[in-house]
Amino acid sequence: MRMAIAVALVAVLAGTSIGDAHTEAQSATSALPARLRNVDVSQAPGPQAEVRIAADPRSPSRLLAASNSDSDPGMRVYRSGDSGRSWSSEVLPKPPNSVASPCHADPAPAIDGDGNQYVVYIQSGVACEEGGEHVTIRVAVRTPTDQGWRYAADSAIPEDPSGSFDDNPWLAVDTDPGSPHYSRLYLAWFRSVGERRLGFELSYSDDQGAHWSQPRIISDSVVDAGYPSLSVAEGGTVYAAWHDFARGSLFMDKSTDGGQTFGTDVRWPIRERDLGDCPNGRPIPAQRLRCIRSDPTVIADSRRGRVYLTYSDSARNGSEDVFVAAFDSRLRRLRGFPHRVGARERRPTDQFWPTAALDRSSGRLWLCFYSTGAGQARTRASFSCALSRRSGRFWSRVVRVASVPSDETRAGASEFAYGDYEGLVVATGEAHPIWTDGRDLRRSSEEIYTTALDGSAFTTGRTRARQVDVSRARGAQNEPAIAVDPSNPRVLIASSNSFGSPMSVYTSRDGGASWRPAPVPADKPNGVCVGDPGVAIDSHGGQYFSFLRDVPCGESEATGLFVATRPNPDAGWRVPSDTVAGPLRPGTSDDKPAIAVDTSSTSPHRDRVYVAWARAVESEIHAIVVSHSDDGGQTWSPPLPVGETTVDSGYPSIATGPGGEVYVAWHPFEQDRLMLALSLDGGDHFGAARLIDVKRKRSTCPASWPIPAQARRCVRPNPIVTVDTGRSAYRGRVYVTYENQANDGTQDVYLAAFDRALKPVLGAPAGRRVVAGSRVRRLRYRADQFWPAAAVDSLTGTLWACFYDTAGDRTRLRTWFSCTRSGDGGRHWTRIARVASAPSDETARWASPLQYGDYVGLAATDGIAHPIWTDTRRGRSALREEIYTASVPGE
To answer: 478, 546, 549, 828: which could form a disulfide with 870 (CB 3.0–4.6 Å)?
Structure first.
C-alpha cells in the first residue's frame, strides 16, 4: 500500500442487511462447511487490514501474523501455538530513534528454520500528521529465547539522503536445510525518490536481520511498478514477481545464486488498466474508493519443477476474476494457462485480492480471495478459497470460508476498506487463510479473521478418470504390471501376460493418456512361453522388464527368470541370454517374480535393482529368494534365500525404504501364514521373518479360495509390501496390503503397517485387522474384494489400494475395478470408488481359463495413481480380455 499519512474513518453508503447479503452471495460460491470455525484474531479497537501469515517450519502449529491497525501506536502482531485455534495479540514496541506517533503499514511476517520470528513493515520518519516522503523499512525480531520483540538495527535499508519512500515490502526465508543459503532472509520492496520509481529492489541477511546486503535492482527496467512477491524453492533458487502498471504486465525473474544476480525478466501481459480516479488500479462495487489491483503472487513447486503465478485481472464481462499461470523451473510458459478459477458466471461477480500458498507434500495449490455476489450483491464480499489438483489446471469449487459476508460500502467502514492484500499459509496439509472482515462494523470496525481448512470440503470438478485400453491385442491378456519414472512422472511402462499375441511392454510418454507397444522378447508360439511380467524404472530413467520363460519353449524342462533392460523409453530392449541366477539348469522352476528399484536419494544403495521370486531346483518345494544388481541389470548377485527353505512358498513382493532397507513379503502355502522380512544391508542378509496375518479357512483350491467371480482359478492372499520413502509424517512406514476371508465368507482387502524395524503399528500384527476402504453405507448383501495392488505416492505420502470389487452384483460374478486411499498412514480410508466404468465378467463362456490371473498393478506419484487391470468389456470381440488403466487424482 502507498501508505496514507493521515488516517480517517469515513461514513459511506449504507448497504443491505447482513442476513439478506448472505443469501444473495451464494450464487458465486458454495456454502461454508458447517464444521468450519471462524476465529477473530485481532479483537482490537479501530480498523485492521492488510494481513499476512507465516508458519514455523519446525513446529507447524505455531503461526505468526501481522496487520495494519490504525488505532495502535505500533504494528499489531498475532501469535498462535495451536494451529490457529486461539491467538494472542500485541503491539510491536517503537523502533529505536523513532519519532513520536510514526505512521506504520504493510507488515510481512516470516519464521526461519530455527524458529526465529520476523516482522518487516514500513514506517514514516516523521510524525504521522506531518506527512512527507520519509518512509523506510523496519525489521522486528523475536528468537525462541527472547521474552519480547527487538530491533536488530534502526532501519533495514538506509534512507536516501534526499528523502525516499520504501513501499510494499515482502519477506521470504530459505527454510530448506539442503540449500547453500539456509535461513537466509530475503527482503524485496519498491523505492521512490520524489516522483521517480527506482525499481524492484532486493536485499538479503544471513545474521537474523542485523545486517543486510547492498540492495540490488531485480527488474531490468521499471516505469511504474509495485506489489512484489518472492518464493524460495528447495535448493535455494529465488523467484520474484511484480506488477508494472505503466506497461500493463506482470513480470517474473529468478536467481540461482542466493539473490546476488537475476536473469532476464519474463513478461506476462494482463488486461487490467487504470480506470476512473484509481491510480494503478480500478474501482469495483465492493471497493470503490480504495480500488483493487492484480496483486501477483509467485509460488515455486521445486519437487514438480513448476512455478505458479496467481493474480486478478479484468474479465471480458467487466468483472474482476482470479487467474493462475504456470511455468517450468526456467520460467517457460506451460500450455493450458492462464486458468480462470471459479465457476462460469451467468452475471458478473468479482473475485479480488488473491493470496496463494502451496502444500509442498501434495503439490496442491491453495488460492483464497474475496468473492462477491451478482447485481446489487457485488458490494458484499465473502472471503473464499479453492484448491487445485497437482497440475493447477483442475480446481475445486470455490468455497466460502467467511461465515458472514462483509460490506465495505456500509456506514462505519474504513476508507481503506479491505486494504491491498490478505494472507495464506499451509502447514502439515492444513491451510490457514487470514483476511480483513467487516461483519460487525458498528461494534468493532474491521477485524482480522482466520480459519483452518483441511481440503475435505474441496472437490475438483473432474470426478471420473479416463480409462485407456493399453493392450489392444487379440486374445486374452492378464496379470498386468506398471511403473512410473521417478524423474519424469509422464513416463510410464506396463506389461502383461498375453495369450494369442506376443507379450509386449507398453510405453506412455503423456502420463498414461496413450500407449505404444513393443514386443519383447521375441517369442514363439504367440506368447505362451513367457509370463509373469514385472516392470521398474530407476532414478535416471533406466527401465527394467522381468519375466519368466520356459526353456525350451513348449517342453517346459525348466522355467527361468530373465530381466531385460533399456536406458530410456526410446531405446531398444536388451534381452539377456542367461537367467538372473545364471545358466538355466534342467529341473529349475522359477515362479511369480517381483522387481523393485531403490530410488531413495538417502539410500547407500540408490538405483540398486532387486528381484524376489519363488525358486525350486529339482524339487517340489519353492523357496523365496532375492537377487540384486548394481550395474543396471548386467550382472546379478547369487540368489539369497529369505525365510524357511523347507516350506513351499510363493507370491513374494519386494520394496525398499528411505535408508536402503529391503522388505520382502510372501505366502508360505503350507503354513497358511503371510510373512515379512527385513534386510538392513542391501539384500545381503535378512533377519527373522515376522508374521503379518494368518490365512483364514482352507478350501478345495490349493493355498487359495474359490469365489463366484473366479471359481476356476481361485484367489490368494497376494501380500504386497510398500514403503513411504517420501517426506510425509509417515516416512519409513512399511505397509502390507493383502486379501483374506472375512467372517461372512467373502473376501476383503486388509492392511498391516509396521515401522522401519518391523514393529507392528496397525492391523492384525497390532491386534486388530484394518480393512482397506470404506462404504457410503453398509451393503445388505455379500461382496468380494480380491487381487489387491498397493502403492505409496512418494511425494504426498498417500497410500493407495486397488482391487476387483463385486459390490453392485448380488451374484458376486461381475466386478468393477476400484480404488481407495489413505492419507494418515493407513488408519482411515476414503470410500471405495470405481475406476472401471463398465463391469467385467470372467465367468462368461468365452473367458480365458486363467480368468483375471493372479495379480494386478498400481503405481503412484505426483498426486496421481495409475492402476492397471484385466477388463472384459470388449470380451465378445476378438480382443477378449484387455488391459486397462486410468490416471486417478488423489483429491
So the answer is: 478
Beta-strand pair 216-217/297-301: unpaired
DSSP assigned state of 778 = -
The owner of cell 545381503 is 684
Element (H, E) at 614: strand 609-617
The answer to whether 15 and 380 are in contact (CB under 8 A) is yes
Burial class (CB in 10 A: 0-12, 13-18, 19+), 835: buried
Q: What is the mean pLDDT of residues 656-667?
A: 97
Backbone angles phi, psi at 401, to 5 degrees: -105, -20
Whether 599 and 538 have beta carbons less than 8 Å apart is answered as yes
Give me the percent of the chain exceeding a pLDDT of 70. Answer: 92
Identity (one letter) of the amino acid at 84?
A: G
**pLDDT single digits (tens) 379-430:** 999 999 999 976 787 888 899 999 999 999 988 888 888 989 999 999 988 8
Taking all residues of the chain, what is their mean pLDDT, rounded to a whole number? 88
761 pLDDT above the threshold of 90: yes
Greatest pairwise CA separation for the chain in angstroms: 100
Q: Which three cell numbers stand for residue 823?
A: 492419507
pLDDT in tens, 169-185: 999 999 998 899 999 99
Which letter does DSSP use for residue 312 in this model? E
Measured between alpha carbons, how far is 423 from 433 in angstroms, rounded to an integer?
A: 6
Pairwise CA distance, residues 476 & 874, whole Å? 11
State the DSSP string of 488-553.
EEEEEEEEEEEESS--EEEEESSTTSS-EEEE-S--SSTTTTEEEEEEEE-TTS-EEEEEEEEEST
Q: What's the CA dihedral at 211, 215, 218, 220 to 10 degrees?
A: -170
pTM (2 d.p.): 0.62
pLDDT class of 2 with cuts at 50, 70, 90 = very low
What H or E segment, with its residue span, contains residue 24?
helix 18-24
Contact call for residues 853 and 479 (beta carbons, < 8 A) = yes
CA dist., res. 12 & res. 160, Å (int): 38
Measure the CA–CA gap between 509 and 495, rounded to whole angstroms: 15
φ, ψ dihedrals at 419, nearest 5°:
75, -150
Length of the chain, in residues: 891
Q: What is the pLDDT of residue 525?
A: 43
What is the DSSP code string of 591-611?
A: EEEEEEE---TT-TTTT-EEE
Residue 463 region, left (φ>0) first, then alpha (ψ -120 to 50), else beta?
alpha
> β-pairing, 857-861 with 816-822?
unpaired
In the three-class reduction of DSSP (H, G, I as helix; E, B as strand; rest coil), residue 873 is classed as coil
Please say whether the dihedral angle defined by the alpha carbons of residues 333, 337, 340 and 342, taken in this order, is positive or negative. Answer: negative
Q: Cis ω on the peptide bond leading into residue 521 (within 30° of 0)? A: yes
* pLDDT above 80 for 839: yes
Torsion, Cα of 302, 308, 309, 314 (10° steps): 180
Q: Which three cell numbers stand for residue 431?
A: 491451510
**Other C-beta atoms lying within 10 Å of the C-beta of residue 48:** 30
- The residue-averaged pLDDT of 7-27 equals 29
Rounded Cα–Cα distance for residues 257 and 238 (Å): 8
The residue among 385, 210, 285 whose CA lies nearest residue 16 is: 285
* Residue-wise pLDDT tens digits, 112-140: 999 999 999 998 866 554 555 678 899 99
Q: What is the pLDDT of residue 691?
A: 96
| pLDDT score of 98 | 76
d(CA 332, CA 69): 40
